[in-house]
């Protein structure tokens, strides 16, 4: 594909990073990520979206699992996008295309990575689950968060939200950043995840951060 002069300037810091370079940046521009989230994980979804767009992911699907389209509530991060996801992303990075997606209405879209936030909730189109090379599942509760990653990532994270225990902005920000970082690493490295599952969790109230991998 090759990078334009404008893109070389825009991603100059990324290109200089060991393990990324021009080839890695080209992979990101050609890649796609779908973010599916419930209302109570919107801040985590918005954080992940910002990181993915800033990194230069070419296509990001935005799939609210509740009835509204997102950003109708006053999320702490809404001001970052100026109340408009499309306009905010264009200002952040004109190379990133936002694709609105509704559950069950995939319209033939295929994504390399699926980021699935929250518990079961509304189902994501099975075609996304089946076609994505990697699924990342993330959930937050209070001061803690958990991530599962792997092909399908069918298991449920243990840190399921409890009634009345809302996640903090800091927790959701950390969760969204961690999910984006893992997605970007897989996209740049074109990592194979067949037969492997990894789990990570953090708890700010106890200063805990841990990760482990299981090979099946």
Please provide a written account of the structure.
The protein is of the alpha/beta class. The protein has a single domain, classed as Rossmann fold (3-Layer(aba) Sandwich). It is 31% helix and 24% strand. Helix 3 (21-29) crosses helix 7 (169-189) and helix 4 (42-55) packs parallel to helix 7 (169-189). The radius of gyration is 17 Å and the shape is globular. The chain starts with a helix and ends with a strand.
Give the strand order of the largest sheet, numbering strands 1, 2, ... along the chain: 3-2-1-4-5-6-7-8
Please estimate the helix content: 25-40%
Count of discrete alpha- or pi-helical segments spanning 4 or more residues? 7
- Name the beta content range: 15-25%
Q: Report mean pLDDT, rounded to a whole number.
A: 81
The biggest sheet, with number of strands, parallel, antiparallel or mixed sense and barrel status, is: 8 strands, mixed
CA-atom Rg in angstroms: 17 Å
Report how far apart the termini are: 36 Å
Structural class: alpha/beta
Number of strands: 8
Basic shape: globular
CATH fold node name: Rossmann fold
CATH structural architecture: 3-Layer(aba) Sandwich
What is the CATH class designation?
Alpha Beta
Task: Count structural domains.
Answer: 1
**What is the oligomeric state here?**
single chain
CATH H-level name... which superfamily? NAD(P)-binding Rossmann-like Domain
Secondary-structure element pattern, one letter each: HHHEHEHEEHEEHEE
Low-confidence stretches: none
């Amino acid at each position: 594909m090759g990078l334009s002069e404008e893109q070389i300037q825009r991603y100059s810091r990324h290109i200089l990073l060991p393990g990324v370079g021009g080839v890695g940046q080209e992979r990101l521009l050609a890649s796609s990520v779908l973010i599916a989230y419930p209302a109570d994980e919107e801040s985590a979804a918005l954080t992940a979206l910002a990181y993915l767009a800033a990194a230069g992911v070419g296509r990001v699907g935005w799939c609210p699992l509740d009835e509204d389209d997102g950003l109708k509530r006053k999320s702490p991060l809404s001001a970052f996008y100026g109340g408009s996801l499309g306009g905010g992303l264009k200002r952040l990075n004109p190379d990133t295309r936002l694709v609105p997606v509704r559950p069950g209405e995939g319209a033939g879209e295929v994504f390399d990575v699926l980021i699935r936030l929250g518990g079961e909730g509304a189902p994501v189109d099975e075609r996304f689950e089946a076609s994505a090379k990697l699924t990342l599942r993330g959930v937050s509760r209070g001061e803690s968060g958990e991530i599962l990653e792997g092909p399908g990532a069918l298991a449920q994270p243990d840190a399921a939200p409890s009634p009345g225990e809302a996640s903090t902005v800091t927790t959701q920000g950390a969760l969204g950043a961690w999910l984006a970082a893992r997605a970007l690493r897989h996209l740049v490295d074109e990592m194979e995840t067949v037969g492997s599952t990894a789990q990570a969790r953090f708890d700010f109230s106890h200063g805990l951060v841990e990760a482990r991998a299981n090979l099946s």
